[in-house]
Amino acid sequence: MLRYSYRLYPTPDQQIALARAFGCARVVFNDALAMRQAAHASGKPYITDAQASAALTAAKATPERAWLSEVSAAVLQQALADLNTAYRNFFDSMTGKRKGRKVGPPRFRSRKDSRQAIRFTANTRFKVLANGRLRLLKIGDVEVRWSRDLPAVPSSVTVIKDAAERYFASFVVRAEPGPLPEAEAECGIDLGLGHFAVLDDGTKITAPRFLRRAEKKLKRVQRDLSRKEKGSNRRDKARVRVARAHAHVADARRDFHHKLSTAIIRENQAVYVEDLAVKGLARTRLAKSVHDAGWSAFVSMLEYKARLYGRDFRRIGRYEPTSQVCSACGVKDGPKPLHVRAWQCKECGAVHDRDVNAATNILALGRRERLNARGGQVRPPLAVAQAVEAGSRRGAA
Ligand SMILES: [Zn+2]
Description:
Mean pLDDT: 84
Number of strands: 14
Low-confidence stretches: 377-397
Order of helices and strands: EHHHEEEEEEEEEHHEHHHEEEHH
Radius of gyration: 26 Å
Shape: elongated
Bound molecules: zinc ion
Helix content: 40-55%
Largest sheet: 7 strands, antiparallel
């Protein structure tokens, strides 16, 4: 399941229709949530999906909620389905059935939420027309900027309005583009701090200028906002500018990640990345730069593209001290403070760039894992493979 997002350009009339649909979906969601919370508070059993759906039908017959009939019934049903999913995730998280970060109970939606969304599933007959417009029930034929091709017929579309007042269509597609022809090369990637990424062949990748420029602008408008008086008109305007700049940075970053990950996956049969376990870094001073660089988003792109195109992708355990071990002779040379960018191995005399050396070690570790996984012939283990040191961290190591 893949998501493909495109910018939408609704006409003023369509914007009004969308605003109405966002509002109705929100009310349906909130009504059902309030009903379930009330049942819970008075010790009654959980209200089933069917009961919530019946309550919606009954509400539409009342004068207070009659206006819900102005929007597509399927959009309202979808709002209920979203709430049901939110509850299911919450229950599964509580019982431990769902792994990962804890999921809280569903929360009320607000018209002030920075993201407004409605979903159309295939059976509600949204349709991509021959003229490139997107037909949405009770909204109209909306203009789309097709920045890339949809690889297959989508199964659903979510229409989103973000804080910068832009509209997007996010399609869900079950796509099987199939494997690429086999490539010779393999690649180890060190996600550096000085550079966005360093490859074992010595390539150092920095964020492109358009992204750095967008980030600079974001900082400037954020500073402007902090200087504006609370509750003032100017502050409201500054807030919209910040939201726009944020969106701009996010777009530029996603674009950069897409291009880079596609290039790396195309050229290499296997790609190995150090597992940063970004969450483990969350409270360190490295955290900010980790989040700014958006590594985890980039690494997940590498991962899904590898799966898509039949490439091998591996994360190398985060406790392997890849920056301490000489990639030439395998001797562990001891911890190096962050400011040490280059060093010479005391054993074999090889001179290393810190990040390229780490990338080379990641490549060696990845190759070993890959061979093991295939049950193939394994070379004698490198020193780096045994040097497991709990608590060491990339960068601080
Ligand atoms: Zn050495």
